Structure formats: C-alpha cells, structure tokens
Amino acid sequence: MNEQLLTVSSSPHIRASHSTASIMRDVVIALLPAMAAGIIFLGINAAILTLICIVTSVLTEFVVQRFIMKRKVTVTDWSAVVTGILLGFNLPVTAPWWLAVIGSIFAIAIVKQAFGGIGQNFINPALAARAFLLASWPTRMTSAAFVTDTYTTATPLALLKSGEVTAAGLPSYMDLFMGNIGGSIGEISALALLIGGIYLIVRQVISWRIPVIFIGTVMVFTFAAGQDPLYHAMAGGLLLGAFFMATDYSSSPVTVRGQIIYALGCGIITSVIRLWGGYPEGVSYSILLMNVATPLIERFSMPKIYGEVKGDA
C-alpha cells in the first residue's frame, strides 16, 4: 500500500475549492459593477468615499489584531476590504470623509474584532456601522444627504413613502434598473447588483435561497398591500442587502430550513417598515434583527442526529 495516500488529520475532512480569501475576492469582483454604476451616476466622490472605507477598515483590522489583541493578522483574507466596500455602498455620496472613517473603525473594531474576528461576529459589521451612523448623525445619512447637484429630489422610496407625488412623478423603471436615481452609493443600479448577485450564485459563493426568498417576500407583501412590487424590488437597498449582506456566512443560518425562515423574516420586516414604519427603507434593520435571531433559528431548524432519542439532545 502506498503510505503517501493516507493522511492522518483532525476534522473537518471535506476538501473544498473555496478559501476565505477566494470567497472574499469573488465578493469584491461581484461588487465592481455596482461600484462602476455609483461612479457613473453619482460622481468620483463615490469612489473616494468607498476607498476611504476600505483603507480605514484594513488599517483598523491590522492595528487591532497586531497591537491590541496580539493575534495573527488576517488582513490578507480580503474580509476587511469587503466590509469597507459594503459600508461605503451604504453611505450617501455627500457623506463627509470622517463619517466613513468612524463607521469603518466601528465596523471592524467593535462589531467584528471585539467578538473574535471573521466568522465570530453575530451581526453584519457594515450594516451595524450603518445603523450606528444613522442613529448618531441622522441628518448626514438621510433625506437631504441624498440630494446632489445631479439629483435634486428625495430617493424613490422616500418619494413613494411621502405620497406627495403621483406615479408619473416617480423615477421610471428604466432609471431604477440602470441607476439613474438618487440613493446610497451602492444601491442605485438594479442591473449592476443583479449581475453581481448572479455571479456569486454561479460561483457557488452564496445560495439562491436567501436573496430570492427575501426579495420574493417583499414583492408578495407589497403587492398584497396594494403597492407596486417591482418598484419595491428595484428601489432602495433590497438587492444590495439580499445578495451581499443577508448572505453573510457568520451571521446567517447554515441549514436549509433556517435560511428559508431567515429570508422570510427579512422580507416581512422590510415590508412592514417600508409600508407602515417611520423610515422609507427597512432592509438594514430587518437583516440586523434576523442576524440576532439566527442562533434561535438554527437551534430549531437543525436536522436531527440519526439515532438520537427525543429528550437526550
């Protein structure tokens, strides 16, 4: 027998072609179309803000791991880059540079590293940072913050929420699809986000279940409430959140049933906030709330162990 065929090692024994770095690189590649759309429609400041978030996120991760926690530095796994891009994508293009810096430090130092680093954070770092910035500087993150020299009106969802404009006064389907609207840097182009989302599914980086059920639930719910489901799907941060943030490995369920429950919850909470809440958008808070519920969902959706006797678990 050829002894070189046998390798003794601890579990897990399943070999996969993906690594953390390759997965994160794929996410970065998938986000590039949305980055391009942000620059085309919102200007070069979209790239500058996103770059500030990336650099600050990477530096924060390096400093915290190297000098504070004195553990192995993992900035080469690209996860801090992904967090920086996603935080930048959640900012209005008029946001000042210091807002991007504070948000990035909070995302990496408080939400990610304080809980053990990649794979240990129980909520999405970029979304938690967005919620922190929104609570701390609401005027910098909402309403007038989305008004620029190019787009002098509120975001499509804010216009829809106000009820002060008719259907003819709202941005067209084509503008929503291409990205010719106001909004956060990374959420404006449905086409760019769909390209990136499909790329991740084809590359098997994410499953179709969470984004499809999340988006589908919002469409069904808003249709039942008498609103345009296609408009709700393309406007706001639904596509960005469903494909790129709700699917975060460490803060979403791993079981099939758990992912279905989680996605349904995200869709229902988003719809309730959009239709009856105080904010025109509800994607961020829906994902964060379901992130917190993930351990409970996994507990009740975990498959039974073969031979397990009820009551012994």
From TrEMBL:
It is a multi-pass membrane protein. The keyword Transmembrane applies. It is an enzyme of class 7 (translocase). Keywords: Cell membrane, Electron transport, Flavoprotein, FMN, Membrane, Phosphoprotein, Translocase, Transmembrane, Transmembrane helix, Transport. Its main location: membrane. The modification FMN phosphoryl threonine is found at T155. Its EC number is 7.-.-.-. Its cofactor is FMN. The chain crosses the membrane at residues 27-60, 72-91, 181-201, 208-224, 230-247, 259-277. One of its GO terms (cellular component) is plasma membrane. One of its GO terms (biological process) is electron transport chain. It is found in: Cell membrane. It comes from the Bacteria. InterPro entries: NqrB/RnfD, RnfD_bac. The complex is composed of six subunits: RnfA, RnfB, RnfC, RnfD, RnfE and RnfG. NCBIfam families: rnfD. Part of a membrane-bound complex that couples electron transfer with translocation of ions across the membrane. Belongs to the NqrB/RnfD family. This is Ion-translocating oxidoreductase complex subunit D. The lineage of its organism: Bacteria, Bacillati, Bacillota, Clostridia, Eubacteriales.
